[in-house]
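Budget justification note: compute hours in this period were largely spent on complex prediction jobs such as the one shown. Inputs:
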Amino acid sequence: SQQGEEDPQALSIQEGENATMNCSYKTSINNLQWYRQNSGRGLVHLILIRSNEREKHSGRLRVTLDTSKKSSSLLITASRAADTASYFCASPFLSGTYKYIFGTGTRLKVLA
Amino acid sequence: DGGITQSPKYLFRKEGQNVTLSCEQNLNHDAMYWYRQDPGQGLRLIYYSQIVNDFQKGDIAEGYSVSREKKESFPLTVTSAQKNPTAFYLCASIGGWNTGELFFGEGSRLTVL
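Corresponding output:
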Protein backbone atom coordinates (compact mmCIF):
# COMPACT_ATOMS: atom_id res chain seq x y z
CA SER A 1 0.00 0.00 0.00
CA GLN A 2 1.21 3.48 -0.77
CA GLN A 3 0.50 5.98 1.94
CA GLY A 4 1.24 8.99 -0.20
CA GLU A 5 0.63 9.89 -3.79
CA GLU A 6 2.73 12.71 -5.16
CA ASP A 7 1.57 14.98 -7.88
CA PRO A 8 2.85 15.65 -10.45
CA GLN A 9 4.86 12.52 -11.20
CA ALA A 10 7.34 14.60 -13.16
CA LEU A 11 8.08 18.31 -13.35
CA SER A 12 10.44 20.24 -15.59
CA ILE A 13 11.16 23.92 -14.94
CA GLN A 14 13.72 26.58 -15.73
CA GLU A 15 16.34 27.63 -13.23
CA GLY A 16 15.05 30.45 -11.04
CA GLU A 17 11.43 29.31 -11.20
CA ASN A 18 9.53 27.88 -8.26
CA ALA A 19 8.66 24.19 -8.08
CA THR A 20 5.57 22.93 -6.29
CA MET A 21 4.80 19.29 -5.64
CA ASN A 22 1.91 17.83 -3.74
CA CYS A 23 1.35 14.78 -1.59
CA SER A 24 -1.91 13.19 -0.58
CA TYR A 25 -2.09 10.56 2.15
CA LYS A 26 -4.69 8.14 3.40
CA THR A 27 -4.56 7.74 7.17
CA SER A 28 -4.40 10.09 10.14
CA ILE A 29 -0.81 11.10 10.78
CA ASN A 30 1.22 12.76 13.50
CA ASN A 31 3.88 14.01 11.15
CA LEU A 32 4.73 14.15 7.47
CA GLN A 33 8.17 14.42 6.00
CA TRP A 34 9.75 15.23 2.69
CA TYR A 35 12.86 13.56 1.32
CA ARG A 36 15.10 14.10 -1.66
CA GLN A 37 16.82 11.41 -3.72
CA ASN A 38 19.53 12.05 -6.28
CA SER A 39 19.70 9.45 -8.99
CA GLY A 40 21.05 6.13 -7.73
CA ARG A 41 21.59 7.39 -4.19
CA GLY A 42 19.94 7.07 -0.81
CA LEU A 43 17.29 9.48 0.40
CA VAL A 44 18.05 12.60 2.38
CA HIS A 45 15.64 14.13 4.86
CA LEU A 46 14.55 17.66 3.98
CA ILE A 47 11.87 18.77 6.40
CA LEU A 48 9.27 17.45 8.84
CA ILE A 49 5.92 19.02 9.61
CA ARG A 50 3.79 17.90 12.54
CA SER A 51 0.03 17.47 12.43
CA ASN A 52 -0.53 20.58 14.55
CA GLU A 53 1.50 22.75 12.16
CA ARG A 54 0.15 24.29 8.99
CA GLU A 55 3.31 25.67 7.43
CA LYS A 56 7.03 25.33 7.89
CA HIS A 57 10.06 26.90 6.24
CA SER A 58 13.64 25.79 5.82
CA GLY A 59 15.85 27.88 3.56
CA ARG A 60 14.29 27.78 0.09
CA LEU A 61 11.81 25.11 1.14
CA ARG A 62 8.26 25.76 2.26
CA VAL A 63 5.98 22.94 3.36
CA THR A 64 2.28 23.17 4.08
CA LEU A 65 -0.02 20.61 5.64
CA ASP A 66 -3.79 20.42 5.42
CA THR A 67 -4.97 17.61 7.67
CA SER A 68 -8.62 18.11 6.69
CA LYS A 69 -7.73 17.34 3.07
CA LYS A 70 -4.97 14.87 3.98
CA SER A 71 -2.53 16.70 1.77
CA SER A 72 0.81 18.44 1.90
CA SER A 73 2.78 20.53 -0.54
CA LEU A 74 6.48 21.23 -0.95
CA LEU A 75 7.55 24.48 -2.57
CA ILE A 76 11.13 25.01 -3.69
CA THR A 77 11.74 28.66 -4.46
CA ALA A 78 14.32 30.03 -6.90
CA SER A 79 15.21 26.55 -8.09
CA ARG A 80 18.72 25.61 -9.19
CA ALA A 81 20.01 22.92 -11.49
CA ALA A 82 21.34 21.17 -8.38
CA ASP A 83 17.75 20.73 -7.17
CA THR A 84 17.22 18.16 -9.92
CA ALA A 85 16.20 15.02 -8.04
CA SER A 86 13.21 12.95 -6.99
CA TYR A 87 11.18 14.15 -4.03
CA PHE A 88 9.13 11.90 -1.78
CA CYS A 89 6.71 12.43 1.06
CA ALA A 90 6.58 9.94 3.92
CA SER A 91 4.64 9.41 7.11
CA PRO A 92 3.92 6.70 9.65
CA PHE A 93 1.20 4.46 8.29
CA LEU A 94 -0.64 4.87 11.54
CA SER A 95 -0.03 7.62 14.05
CA GLY A 96 2.33 6.42 16.73
CA THR A 97 3.81 3.54 14.79
CA TYR A 98 7.20 2.86 13.29
CA LYS A 99 5.77 1.75 9.95
CA TYR A 100 6.92 4.54 7.65
CA ILE A 101 5.38 4.52 4.19
CA PHE A 102 6.56 6.56 1.22
CA GLY A 103 4.72 8.14 -1.64
CA THR A 104 5.34 7.53 -5.30
CA GLY A 105 7.60 10.56 -5.75
CA THR A 106 7.92 13.57 -8.04
CA ARG A 107 10.84 13.69 -10.46
CA LEU A 108 12.00 17.28 -10.71
CA LYS A 109 14.25 18.48 -13.49
CA VAL A 110 15.60 22.01 -13.32
CA LEU A 111 16.99 23.26 -16.62
CA ALA A 112 19.95 25.62 -16.56
CA ASP B 1 30.92 9.96 11.49
CA GLY B 2 27.61 8.30 12.32
CA GLY B 3 25.64 6.78 9.54
CA ILE B 4 24.33 3.73 7.77
CA THR B 5 26.51 1.46 5.69
CA GLN B 6 25.07 -0.87 3.09
CA SER B 7 27.07 -3.51 1.29
CA PRO B 8 27.64 -4.57 -1.34
CA LYS B 9 26.80 -1.59 -3.55
CA TYR B 10 26.32 -3.83 -6.59
CA LEU B 11 25.47 -7.50 -6.57
CA PHE B 12 24.79 -9.98 -9.31
CA ARG B 13 23.08 -13.25 -8.68
CA LYS B 14 22.00 -16.23 -10.68
CA GLU B 15 18.41 -17.34 -10.55
CA GLY B 16 17.75 -19.73 -7.69
CA GLN B 17 20.43 -18.32 -5.41
CA ASN B 18 19.85 -16.64 -2.10
CA VAL B 19 21.74 -13.43 -1.43
CA THR B 20 22.18 -11.40 1.74
CA LEU B 21 22.44 -7.63 1.81
CA SER B 22 24.18 -6.05 4.76
CA CYS B 23 23.03 -2.97 6.66
CA GLU B 24 24.96 -1.59 9.63
CA GLN B 25 24.30 1.61 11.60
CA ASN B 26 26.27 3.36 14.31
CA LEU B 27 23.59 5.92 15.14
CA ASN B 28 22.30 3.97 18.14
CA HIS B 29 18.88 3.91 16.50
CA ASP B 30 16.24 1.49 17.67
CA ALA B 31 14.28 1.05 14.44
CA MET B 32 15.59 -0.12 11.10
CA TYR B 33 13.96 -0.60 7.71
CA TRP B 34 14.37 -2.24 4.32
CA TYR B 35 12.77 -0.72 1.24
CA ARG B 36 12.72 -1.82 -2.36
CA GLN B 37 12.78 0.65 -5.22
CA ASP B 38 12.14 -0.23 -8.85
CA PRO B 39 13.23 2.07 -11.70
CA GLY B 40 11.29 5.33 -11.67
CA GLN B 41 9.15 4.15 -8.77
CA GLY B 42 8.65 4.98 -5.13
CA LEU B 43 9.85 3.02 -2.11
CA ARG B 44 8.00 -0.06 -0.96
CA LEU B 45 8.47 -1.37 2.57
CA ILE B 46 9.80 -4.93 2.85
CA TYR B 47 10.46 -5.35 6.58
CA TYR B 48 11.04 -3.15 9.57
CA SER B 49 12.31 -3.73 13.08
CA GLN B 50 11.49 -1.59 16.09
CA ILE B 51 13.83 -3.32 18.49
CA VAL B 52 16.38 -6.13 18.68
CA ASN B 53 14.95 -9.63 18.12
CA ASP B 54 11.71 -8.23 16.74
CA PHE B 55 10.64 -7.38 13.21
CA GLN B 56 7.44 -6.92 11.22
CA LYS B 57 6.48 -7.55 7.63
CA GLY B 58 5.95 -4.60 5.39
CA ASP B 59 3.87 -4.53 2.24
CA ILE B 60 6.05 -6.78 0.07
CA ALA B 61 7.72 -9.25 2.46
CA GLU B 62 7.15 -12.38 0.37
CA GLY B 63 10.44 -13.87 -0.80
CA TYR B 64 12.52 -11.93 1.72
CA SER B 65 13.78 -12.66 5.22
CA VAL B 66 15.51 -10.58 7.90
CA SER B 67 17.08 -10.92 11.31
CA ARG B 68 17.80 -8.42 14.08
CA GLU B 69 20.25 -10.02 16.47
CA LYS B 70 22.12 -6.80 17.18
CA LYS B 71 20.94 -3.22 17.43
CA GLU B 72 23.49 -2.14 14.83
CA SER B 73 22.69 -4.72 12.17
CA PHE B 74 19.65 -5.61 10.05
CA PRO B 75 20.61 -7.93 7.17
CA LEU B 76 18.15 -8.72 4.38
CA THR B 77 18.16 -12.06 2.57
CA VAL B 78 16.61 -12.18 -0.87
CA THR B 79 15.55 -15.77 -1.32
CA SER B 80 14.97 -17.79 -4.45
CA ALA B 81 11.26 -17.49 -3.70
CA GLN B 82 11.36 -13.81 -4.71
CA LYS B 83 10.24 -13.96 -8.32
CA ASN B 84 11.48 -10.58 -9.45
CA PRO B 85 14.40 -9.59 -7.21
CA THR B 86 16.21 -7.21 -9.54
CA ALA B 87 15.86 -3.83 -7.82
CA PHE B 88 17.54 -1.14 -5.75
CA TYR B 89 17.41 -1.90 -2.02
CA LEU B 90 17.57 0.81 0.61
CA CYS B 91 18.16 0.42 4.33
CA ALA B 92 17.15 3.12 6.81
CA SER B 93 16.99 3.75 10.54
CA ILE B 94 15.24 6.12 12.91
CA GLY B 95 15.78 7.03 16.55
CA GLY B 96 12.13 7.10 17.61
CA TRP B 97 8.74 6.87 15.91
CA ASN B 98 8.05 10.57 16.31
CA THR B 99 11.56 11.95 15.87
CA GLY B 100 10.92 12.11 12.18
CA GLU B 101 14.17 11.78 10.37
CA LEU B 102 14.90 8.52 8.64
CA PHE B 103 18.58 8.08 7.82
CA PHE B 104 19.29 6.12 4.66
CA GLY B 105 22.22 4.14 3.38
CA GLU B 106 23.47 4.53 -0.18
CA GLY B 107 21.64 1.46 -1.39
CA SER B 108 22.46 -1.92 -2.89
CA ARG B 109 21.63 -2.66 -6.50
CA LEU B 110 20.80 -6.32 -7.08
CA THR B 111 20.69 -7.75 -10.57
CA VAL B 112 19.56 -11.28 -11.28
CA LEU B 113 21.16 -12.78 -14.36
